[in-house]
Prior knowledge:
There is one protein chain. The protein is of the alpha+beta class and 382 residues long. It folds into two domains: 3-173 and 345-367, Aminopeptidase (3-Layer(aba) Sandwich), CATH 3.40.630; 177-342, Gcn5-related N-acetyltransferase (GNAT) (Aminopeptidase, 3-Layer(aba) Sandwich). Helices cover 37% and strands 26% of the residues. It has helices spanning 18-21, 30-39, 81-93, 119-139, 154-160, 188-193, 197-209, 220-225, 227-239, 252-260, 297-303, 305-319, 332-336, 354-358, 360-367, and strands at residues 3-8, 44-53, 56-67, 96-100, 111-113, 146-153, 169-171, 176-180, 213-217, 264-271, 274-284, 287-295, 324-328, 341-343, 345-351. The chain starts with a strand and ends in a 15-residue tail after the last helix.
Amino acid sequence: xxxxxxxxxxxxxxxxxxxxxxxxxxxxxxxxxxxxxxxxxxxxxxxxxxxxxxxxxxxxxxxxxxxxxxxxxxxxxxxxxxxxxxxxxxxxxxxxxxxxxxxxxxxxxxxxxxxxxxxxxxxxxxxxxxxxxxxxxxxxxxxxxxxxxxxxxxxxxxxxxxxxxxxxxxxxxxxxxxxxxxxxxxxxxxxxxxxxxxxxxxxxxxxxxxxxxxxxxxxxxxxxxxxxxxxxxxxxxxxxxxxxxxxxxxxxxxxxxxxxxxxxxxxxxxxxxxxxxxxxxxxxxxxxxxxxxxxxxxxxxxxxxxxxxxxxxxxxxxxxxxxxxxxxxxxxxxxxxxxxxxxxxxxxxxxxxxxxxxxxxxxxxxxxxxxxxxxxxxxxxx
Length: 382
């Protein structure tokens, strides 16, 4: 059965059956896509791909173009020669990047089908879509340097590698930290009781540090009135990450609340009535997706704010009967200390210059920050 695709540049153009096809993934449904359309990072342009069998829409996918020249910082935490070299390489040989998938989140969120499609067809369709968008930019006198297919679970990556992805460089960056919640945990107390003594003590100690901090979910009106402060707290954390390819727009969180309503939760942390931190969540079926957060560095140190945010997100997941929580990349050790486990995700990448592309296996590992961390095992052995 041959498939065709149409690439859309605005939500208004999407077929009416789009959300029916994307029903299993909130990150591909129109409310979230409208968030991207209305408040994407300034250096990002999104494309929405409809995949058809004859006239019927059977698949949806997302692509994102990033112009790294518009970025003021790739991340300021690691100031060393390797970082300067990496930044030079990105500016000159990799500043126009096309992602098939969502570069803003971790997980296999790039496409969804409403029927079984073989991996051969999927690999060919994704590659054809990438080629079509690359040609579109060529007509605009923009050369796409790098094309990346983002975040596949291992079994899926292995399949794609057998077909159209065979010649691409495949890579694993930091793992996705995923917490499969135990069915026997009905309350937060059940979760705490499952800890070994060391980690129960950690929980009590961090909880005690939070004295004076109040937390509450913010309404749309409250998000709007705190917009500048929320952005300030987010930006502080984002700027100090080891590597960035985008910064969110100032109105991102209010737009998210407006579009997704109760499925988007922004929880504020207050000290003497002043907002000193926040975390966000997206309710995605039986999966709880953690999203961006922010905090005041001084308060975070004194109050163990970040660790308490992880505990609070877990509590929300248990009390609202989610099956798993996606904690994403970064801060792997502390996330493992609350129960999340590393799941490796595979990406595929190629450079449009065939000479550079041949060097990809040598170049890419040098650009990725090396990571040393120790996985924690917080629960009593059953």
